[in-house]
Amino acid sequence: MATETARNTTLRSPLGRVRGFGSAKGGTHHWWMQRVTSAALLPLTIWFALSAASLAGASYEETRAWIAHPFNAVLLLASIGLSFHHTAAGMQVIVEDYANEEWAKVAGIYAARAICWLLAIASALAVLRIAVQG
Amino acid sequence: MSIMQDSREATMIGRRTDGTTIRRPLSPHLQVYDMMQLTSALSISGRITGIIWSVGLLVLVWWLVATASGPSAHGTVSWFLSSWLGVLGLVGLTAAAWFHTLNGIRHLAWDAGYGYDIKTTYKSGQAVLIGTAAATVLTWLIAIIAWAS
């Protein structure tokens, strides 16, 4: 009877329990997105590795023409977005594992994320500039 | 007791039977494991190759931004990437990227619940190593053929 009362007097709503959001505000999302981006990056990586290899020794004009081609530009933009998302997620796990101080952990995660965002925007802009200019 | 520098110290405090506190040692850590086993070596390699690939992404950013900004900047990247240091770095990056990719497939299989027994773990680990070598050679074969033509 006592345990029954204790179970029923929780301040947490049934909806809150079902959603499973504790103070972390998220459960498996970070882990799952790492897997989703890795699966998406698999074909993109094979495409880019083989394309980059076949660009060996290419001139400035040939390189620009390759990037400017709509098919390549679209896949490059997708690769950039997914790569930096995956990198930021991976860096976060590494920081979480090795930083003991809370301030260092938070600072490290956001620093990695900020760098990834800036680099992703810079590379995307570069691809778009080449694609638009031709 | 002094101010804790490491949050893990909170788990290292025990009490003697008379009630006085005692600092207990941490549980056995890295030093008790044989890190030269294929399983442990490939495990940490997955993380290391991820870091190497992150650095490699910087080269991609440099290459794209330089190609967008003009012929002279592109010339500088091309010069560096075709120098012996650049080629050495790219070969290393290719190998690291293929390892991370193939080991990632292994991890996805584990996530799906397959390949957990010791025998399969070793076999898939060896497959990743052989695959990394084969894919790296293939990538550079394409590069050399493209460069020569």
TrEMBL record, chain A:
Membrane topology, from the record: Multi-pass membrane protein
Keyword Cytoplasm belongs to the record: no
Name of the protein in its database record: Succinate dehydrogenase hydrophobic membrane anchor subunit
InterPro entries reported in the protein's UniProt record: SQR/QFR_C/D (IPR034804), Succ_DH_anchor (IPR014312), SuccDH_FuR_B_TM-su (IPR000701)
Originating organism: Roseicella aquatilis
Pfam families for the chain: Sdh_cyt
Annotated GO MF terms: heme binding; metal ion binding
Cofactor(s) needed: heme
Keyword line: Electron transport, Heme, Iron, Membrane, Metal-binding, Transmembrane, Transmembrane helix, Transport, Tricarboxylic acid cycle
One GO-annotated biological process of the protein: tricarboxylic acid cycle
From TrEMBL, chain B:
CDD domains for this protein: SQR_TypeC_SdhC
Gene3D superfamilies referenced in this protein's UniProt entry, alphabetically: Fumarate reductase/succinate dehydrogenase, transmembrane subunit
InterPro entries, A to Z: SQR/QFR_C/D, Succ_DH_cyt_bsu_CS, Succ_DH_cytb556, SuccDH_FuR_B_TM-su
Membrane association type: Multi-pass membrane protein
Entry cofactors: heme
Manner of cofactor binding, per the entry note: The heme is bound between the two transmembrane subunits.
Entry GO terms, CC: membrane
Transmembrane segments: 44-65, 77-99, 127-148
GO biological-process terms attached to the record: tricarboxylic acid cycle
Superkingdom of origin organism: Bacteria
Amino-acid positions noted as binding heme in the UniProt annotation, renumbered to this chain: 100
Subcellular location: Membrane
Keywords associated with the record: Heme, Iron, Membrane, Metal-binding, Transmembrane, Transmembrane helix
Gene Ontology molecular function terms on file: electron transfer activity; metal ion binding
Subunit structure: Part of an enzyme complex containing four subunits: a flavoprotein, an iron-sulfur protein, plus two membrane-anchoring proteins, SdhC and SdhD. The complex can form homotrimers.
Protein's job: Membrane-anchoring subunit of succinate dehydrogenase (SDH).
Family: Belongs to the cytochrome b560 family.
PANTHER family: SUCCINATE DEHYDROGENASE CYTOCHROME B560 SUBUNIT, SUCCINATE DEHYDROGENASE CYTOCHROME B560 SUBUNIT, MITOCHONDRIAL
Protein name, per record: Succinate dehydrogenase cytochrome b556 subunit
Organism in which the protein naturally occurs: Roseicella aquatilis
Gene (name only): sdhC
